[in-house]
Specification:
It is built from eight helices and ten strands. By secondary structure, it is of the alpha/beta class. It has a single domain, classed as Alpha-Beta Barrel (TIM Barrel). The protein has a seven-stranded parallel beta barrel with strand order 1-2-3-4-5-6-9. Strands 7-8 form a two-stranded antiparallel ribbon. Helix 3 packs parallel to helix 5, helix 5 packs across helix 6 and helix 7 crosses helix 8. The longest helix has 21 residues. The radius of gyration is 17 Å and the shape is globular. The two termini are about 15 Å apart.
């Protein structure tokens, strides 16, 4: 039987100035890839530098986590922007993280859009195309984290970019493979045992239960645990334990 491998990623470096977001230090030993905020929804220069340093020291692969320019809304509000504006904003943010990666002697592995930008790119071909174009222009070997069956995945494929299919341990799914809006009841999965069971079934069977109670066919190469989910550390720990029990190896795609 071929080795079953999964990446565990988390959105880190989202603190800003005196404001602390997420359980970064506790999560680093439990993940294989870090999506580092680039300053538009979180992540001031010192936080970015510190996050890159810790990730490098702990052998965690580093990716950019660009967003809409929305510090007040933590990148979870949709901002009216043209494809040209999104393209420029993406390049700006990729360059910001890359500067700290270069200074610390590490390479960027991937790009994963944050929050509202990621959700819009899942459905909007224009937004997805702008993101893919910016990534290709910046570095065409960067991995693109995208939700399966999404416009972002199609845009990355059309641009010839390498893709990592991403699922979410702490979020509920709609029947169309999109995430249930955080404003709706049941959108968050906070019970560690439930999250681990759902992700184990996803990896071993290619299925996940939707918010409506039906099964959705879905495949993933990476599992996200949001660092600001209250039970994030417990969920990541439960994933590690369940995957070890199932014989699933946790490893970043860039380390395959």
């Amino acid at each position: 039987m071929p080795e079953r491998v999964i990446d565990i990623n988390s959105d880190l470096g989202e603190s800003y100035g005196a404001f602390q977001i997420g359980a970064d230090q506790q999560l680093f030993p439990l993940i294989s890839s870090a999506n580092v905020a680039c300053g538009f929804h979180g992540g001031d220069p010192r936080t970015i530098d510190r996050t890159v340093k810790v990730a490098s020291a702990q052998g965690v692969c580093i990716g950019a986590h660009p967003s809409y320019p929305d510090l007040v809304g933590f990148g979870r509000r949709v901002i009216a922007a043209t494809p040209e504006e999104i393209y420029a904003d993406l390049l700006y943010q990729l360059g910001a993280l890359d500067a700290f990666c270069r200074a610390n002697g590490v390479a960027m592995q991937h790009v994963k859009a944050h929050g509202a930008l990621n959700n819009v790119a899942a459905k909007d071909e224009g937004v997805a195309g702008a993101i893919a174009a910016a990534i290709k222009a910046f570095d065409p070997i960067l991995l693109v984290y995208a939700m399966p069956q999404s416009a972002m995945m199609v845009a990355a494929e059309q641009a010839g970019l390498p893709i990592v299919r991403e699922a979410f341990a702490d979020r509920a799914y709609n029947p169309d493979a999109t995430l249930v809006a955080r404003s709706k009841p049941g959108a968050m999965v906070t019970d560690p045992a439930e999250a681990a069971e759902r992700m184990s079934r996803l990896i071993t069977e290619g299925r996940i239960r939707t918010i409506d109670g039906d099964d959705l066919l879905l495949e993933a190469d990476s599992i996200c645990v949001h660092s600001d989910t209250p039970t994030a550390v417990a969920i990541a720990t439960a994933l590690q334990e369940r995957f070890a029990s199932d014989g699933i190896v946790v490893r970043a795609p860039g380390m395959a």
